[in-house]
Amino acid sequence: MHIRLAQESDYQKIYELVQTAFLTAQVSDGTEQDFVLKLREGDTFIPQLEFVAEDNNELIGHIMMTKQNIQTQNGILTGVLVAPLCVKKEYRNQGIGRALITHAHQCARQLGYQAAFLVGDPLYYHRFQYFQTNKFNIKNNSEIPDQYVLACELNHDSLKNIVGEINIVE
């Protein structure tokens, strides 16, 4: 298995992978593959932060990050939104999701991003140091329940001493 930057020629296979992977996900609304398309078309898309995992030239995992603004008392903090992360069902529980998120975090840090945000299962993402945004004094202004809106400091204490608001739009 290796991780590489997603290419435009991968987009159809990514669409199919995301669609199929979320059919068996614990939490899904069935539109994750269309959300990927919407994110790519938006002005928050970061092509340098979309990755695929491959095994013998087969796509088995995907992650992408887009810009996510946080309104703070000192202005705007721009972090990244992880959406979506998926692994093909028969490759789950083998560390591929961990490898994808670790790689994406490292690349986001190299691009200067200080924090990552996502909507997801807190039991899964806690192992990657994601916690409810209110732990970091960031108020969730979306209609998504607070327990699923999570934040992670990409650099130590990067969210310390801020007070802010996040509005994740799905």
Give keywords:
Aminopeptidase; nine-stranded mixed sheet; 9 strands; 4 helices; 170 residues; alpha+beta
Mind explaining what this structure looks like?
GO terms for molecular function: acyltransferase activity, transferring groups other than amino-acyl groups. This is Putative N-acetyltransferase YhbS. It comes from Longibaculum muris. This protein is of the alpha+beta class and 170 residues long. It has a single domain (2-166), classed as 3-Layer(aba) Sandwich (Aminopeptidase), CATH 3.40.630. The chain is built from four helices and nine strands. Strands 1, 2, 3, 4, 5, 6, 7, 8 and 9 form a nine-stranded mixed sheet that branches. Strand 4 (75-87), helix 3 and strand 5 (115-119) form a beta-alpha-beta unit. The model has no long low-confidence stretch (mean pLDDT 94).
Fold blueprint:
Elements: E1 2-5, H1 11-23, H2 32-41, E2 45-55, E3 58-72, E4 75-87, H3 96-110, E5 115-119, H4 122-125, E6 131-132, E7 138-140, E8 149-153, E9 164-166
Parallel strand pairs: 4-5, 7-9
Antiparallel strand pairs: 1-2, 2-3, 3-4, 3-9, 5-8, 6-8
In whole angstroms, the N-to-C terminal distance is 31 Å
Radius of gyration from the alpha-carbon trace, in angstroms? 15 Å
Secondary structure class reads: alpha+beta
**CATH secondary-structure class:** Alpha Beta
Number of strands: 9
Q: What is the chain-wise order of helices and strands?
A: EHHEEEHEHEEEE
Helix content: 10-25%
Let me know the largest β-sheet.
9 strands, mixed
* CATH level 3 topology: Aminopeptidase
Question: Helical segment tally?
Answer: 4
Proper CATH architecture: 3-Layer(aba) Sandwich
Q: Number of domains in the coordinates?
A: 1
